[in-house]
Design brief:
Order of helices and strands: HEEHHHHEHH
Helix content: 55-70%
Largest sheet: 3 strands, antiparallel
Strand order of the largest sheet: 2-1-3
Structural class: mainly alpha
Number of strands: 3
Distance between the termini: 69 Å
Radius of gyration: 29 Å
Oligomer: single chain
CATH class: Mainly Alpha
Number of domains: 1
Length: 214
C-alpha cells in the first residue's frame, strides 16, 4: 500500500505579505515615534530643569534655569531629527540609509545631552555670579526637576524611529517619481488597442484616446 504525502506550497502572495506588513507597521511606528519624540524634546527644553539660590546682600535670592538655558543641544537636534524624518521619504537606497542614520544620531544626541544637563549647574552658577556681582559665586541648594528625563524619552523615540528607518526603510514608499531627475515628465506609454476587442475600444474612449490610431 502506497501512502502519498502532499506538501503544502506557500502562496507567493502570503510570502510577500510578511515584509509588506512589517514595512507598514514600522513606518507607522517611526512616523508617530519620531514626530512625538521631537515634540516632547522641544517641550521639555522650554520647561524648568533646575533651581537654587544665591546669596545677595545677606539674603537668599531664588534662581531657576530652563532646559534651553542649560543646553541648546536637545532643541537643535529635535529640529534636525524632525527634518530627517521628513527627508527620509525624499531619498532612496544609500541616501535613505544616510538620512536614517542622521535621524538615529539625533535621537541619541538628545538623550545624551539631556542626561548631562540633568546634573549641570553651570547655568545657575552663571546667574548666581550675575546676581551677587561676584564672579566666583556659585548656586546653593541646587535641585533638578524631571524635565531633563522627559527630554531623554523624546530622544529615545527619535532614536527608535531612526533604527526602524535603518532596518525597514527599504520597504517604505518614497515621494512620487512622476518627474525624472532632469525635471522632464515621464512619457506615458499608449496602451495597445485591439480593434477586435470591444472592451479595449471602450477603455480607449474613456481615456480620451482615438481607438482607430488616426
Amino acid at each position: 500500500m502506497i501512502v502519498g504525502y502532499v506538501t503544502a506550497v506557500p502562496h507567493p502572495r502570503s510570502e510577500a505579505a510578511g515584509p509588506a506588513r512589517a514595512g507598514r507597521l514600522s513606518l507607522a511606528v517611526a512616523l508617530l515615534g519620531g514626530a512625538l519624540g521631537a515634540a516632547v524634546a522641544l517641550l521639555a527644553t522650554r520647561q524648568q530643569w533646575a533651581e537654587g539660590t544665591a546669596t545677595v546682600a545677606g539674603g537668599a535670592f531664588p534662581l531657576t534655569a530652563k532646559g534651553s538655558d542649560v543646553t541648546g543641544v536637545p532643541a537643535a537636534l529635535a529640529i534636525v531629527g524632525l527634518a530627517a524624518l521628513v527627508a527620509v521619504f525624499a531619498v532612496r537606497k544609500a541616501g535613505r540609509l544616510l538620512v536614517a542614520g542622521v535621524l538615529a544620531l539625533s535621537g541619541a544626541g538628545i538623550a545624551a545631552a539631556a542626561l548631562v544637563g540633568a546634573s549641570d549647574s553651570s547655568a545657575l552658577d552663571e546667574q548666581a555670579a550675575k546676581a551677587s556681582g561676584d564672579t566666583s559665586a556659585t548656586v546653593a541648594s541646587l535641585s533638578h526637576t524631571a524635565w531633563p528625563y522627559v527630554a531623554v524619552v523624546g530622544g529615545a523615540l527619535i532614536l527608535l524611529a531612526g533604527l526602524l528607518a535603518l532596518r525597514y526603510g527599504r520597504l517604505w514608499p518614497a515621494m512620487s517619481g512622476r518627474y525624472e531627475r532632469d525635471g522632464a515628465p515621464r512619457v506615458r506609454r499608449k496602451a495597445v488597442v485591439d480593434p477586435d476587442r470591444p472592451e479595449d475600444i471602450w477603455k480607449a474612449l474613456d481615456r480620451g484616446e482615438d481607438p482607430t490610431g488616426a
